[in-house]
Design brief:
Chain lengths: 333, 310
């Protein structure tokens, strides 16, 4: 019995190896119509690309770019790379395969990029969300000024709360999440310093159950407006919807998930930054600069839920705050 | 501040949150306890939870029938248990590694199926809260204990049932015997292979239901990797509970109640850094384990494959 298994396994491996070898042999003999090679971009993200949050935002940006550039753009992605060693292997693999631009979309990938980039001086590495390019000539950095959108959401939230208690469900107190939360709190207090904003960080980006309990805790403690960051917030949004509390989202448009309670979402349009990176690469500059997606450059947009009717004056106030931030008149962090 | 913790609202909040959070740990932990008592270590609980969560969610999304959803989870869990049984009992592969393999399979498969079949995160109508008549009307106590959904009640009912099965029935005796001394059990006519298949399949079913409790009862949503390591914590709780049902209950409640407490601590603005608050359930569980005097000895044949000699 055991021998049969051994033979079968060896046969299976042999078949797989042969199939793998064959697929690399060039088989096409069609005449090449277009001599311009498509731009090849690779993306490595820590969560799945339909997480309604961080990774989805970069995936959506790539879809926009693909629509613009059509066949001139080829892209591949490796998602769910929450183990940093796996991500490093993926980044190196893409570089070795000759991808032109590699997006290491996760601040935890910093040391990996720092290690790998020097080995591939002709490849552009873009690392987000951070400002550190490690002094390397082929590394770009990008981040979102999520405190700006946070501030706007905070202002709107402050105008909507009746109980004067607002709850925040955060993942881990770092990076993008912390920026958003800090901006949000500041925005709330800019309207009314008496409003009690309670912030909980649940210590995980993916624990949906704990996020839901955090939201329930906020609601039991009297909050009637909630907000939060990272993909586990779907649990919190569900509880907000059950309780009829307003929700403010970030990183992706969460309106479709809970159309009755989502007031606004801060949506990242990374394609604004990606276009700049592509342009710079075409001009021969492979790195050394950091970008920020902000309300000014359109990298950040506040999507209001078109299906919700807000009390009079709230939308106008929110829009005026956006204008003020763009004009540089407000400190959001 | 910290005195705010001692109000009725907070008390009700902490205990009922703790009860809800403990539910998946109870299902998965009791299932794993049976499996380990018969000698099979299953580290694939997390993968079984994810596939169970997805199957139940998908069926409820498409048919709107909660019962079918749970049936789907049971079916998927039984299949995964059967596969695990085949790999570890029949092929006698190293149990720990096999379990990790099933974890990876469950995680990858649930992700793939979700992306291909659904694609977007959306919520469903899951099990509603059921208020138990009379008991649910008792002030405070009623709100804490008797206004949960069906799967929460089932999870807690599972504990005394598991205790009874393990300690008062023939099959329970056989399970314990097979886990302690499979050679002796075999010589007395107990089918070691049969008993182990039974417990591993039951373990798979319970892990799957644990996942389903998340996606169609407590959260009413499915998201990739939504279990966030709860399956592994459930395995750890089996060790914590010294392989006894009420031990697993104690561990699950301790962990979940402290988790609920730390959320309230953060909400009420008690000045503890969020990182420390998040650590509390883990540290407390380790402390209790370190200080507990009755350190259970595990089943002697745990992780050892059974080969009939001679």
């Amino acid at each position: 019995m055991k021998n049969i298994f051994k033979v079968l396994s060896i046969l299976l491996i042999a078949v797989l190896v042969l199939a793998g070898c064959n697929s690399e042999a060039p088989t096409t003999d069609e005449p090449v119509v277009d001599n311009v090679e498509p731009l090849r971009i690779a993306i490595v993200t820590p969560s799945t690309i339909n997480d309604l949050a961080f990774s989805q935002s970069i995936s959506d940006a790539m879809k926009v770019l693909k629509e613009d550039m059509g066949d001139n753009l080829e892209y591949a992605y490796s998602e769910n790379m929450f183990v940093i060693d796996d991500a490093a292997a993926a980044i190196r693999d893409y570089a070795q395969k000759g991808y032109d631009i590699i997006l290491a979309h996760g601040s935890q990938y910093g040391s990996s990029v720092q290690e790998i980039a020097p080995d591939f001086p002709d490849t552009v590495f873009a690392h987000g969300t951070t400002v550190d390019t490690f002094g390397l000539p082929n590394v770009y950095a990008y981040e979102a000024a999520s405190d700006q959108g946070g501030f706007v959401n905070g202002v709107t939230a402050a105008l909507l709360t009746k109980s004067k208690i607002i709850g925040v469900v955060g993942p881990i107190e770092t990076g993008d999440a912390k920026l958003y939360v800090d901006g949000f709190v500041k925005g709330v207090h800019s309207v009314d310093p008496e409003i009690d904003v309670r912030v909980t960080y649940i210590g995980s980006f993916s624990d949906v159950a704990l996020a839901a309990e955090a939201a329930t805790t906020h609601l039991s403690a009297g909050a009637d407006v909630l907000t939060g960051s990272a993909q586990m917030v779907v649990g919190a949004i569900g509880k907000a919807q059950e309780a009829g509390a307003w929700w403010f989202g970030t990183q992706a448009d969460q309106t479709d998930f809970a159309p009755d309670v989502v007031v606004a979402s801060q949506v990242y349009h990374w394609e604004i930054i990606l276009r700049e990176i592509i342009a710079k690469r075409d001009a021969g500059v492979l790195g050394g600069e950091s970008f920020a997606a902000s309300l000014e450059n359109g990298g950040q947009v506040i999507h209001f839920n078109p299906g919700l009717e807000l009390p009079e004056g709230v939308m106008d106030k929110a829009q005026s705050i956006i204008d003020e931030i763009v004009a540089g008149n407000i400190e959001t962090h | 501040m910290i005195t705010d913790l001692f109000t009725t609202t907070v008390l009700i909040g902490i205990i009922s949150s703790g009860i809800r959070l403990a539910t998946p740990y109870l299902f998965a932990g009791i299932g794993e306890m049976f499996s380990q008592r018969s000698g099979v270590l299953n580290l694939g609980v997390e993968g079984q939870m994810l596939l169970g969560a997805f199957s139940a969610y998908y069926v409820v999304l498409k048919t709107g029938n909660l019962f079918f959803g749970i049936l789907a989870a049971i079916g998927v869990g039984a299949l995964m248990g059967l596969a695990m049984g085949f790999v570890t009992i029949h092929l006698k592969a190293t149990q720990g590694i096999a379990g990790i393999g099933f974890y990876l399979f469950g995680m990858g498969m649930s992700n793939l199926l979700f992306q291909k079949l659904i694609g977007m995160v959306e919520n469903i109508n899951g099990f509603p809260s059921i208020k138990i008549p009379l008991l649910g009307d008792i002030p405070v106590i009623g709100e804490i204990f008797f206004q949960h959904n069906l799967l929460v009640y089932l999870a807690f009912l599972l504990v005394p049932v598991a205790w009874f099965v393990l300690n008062k029935t023939t099959i329970g005796l056989k399970i314990r015997a097979v886990g302690e001394n499979p050679e002796a059990a075999d010589s007395l006519g107990v089918s070691v292979v049969g008993v182990r298949y039974f417990t591993v399949i039951m373990g798979g079913i319970f892990s799957s239901i644990a996942g389903a409790s998340l996606s169609v009862a407590l959260l009413n949503v499915f998201q990739q990797n939504m279990t966030a390591g709860q399956g592994f914590i459930a395995v750890a709780l089996v060790y914590f509970g010294a392989w006894k049902p009420f031990g697993v209950l104690t561990g699950a409640l301790l962990f979940s109640l402290v988790n609920a407490l730390q959320l309230w601590i953060q909400v009420l603005g008690v000045p503890i850094p969020s990182e420390f608050a998040v650590m509390m359930p883990y540290i407390l569980t380790i402390l209790v384990l370190a200080l507990s005097l009755s350190k259970g000895k595990g089943p002697s044949a745990l992780t050892k494959a059974f080969e009939r000699e001679g």
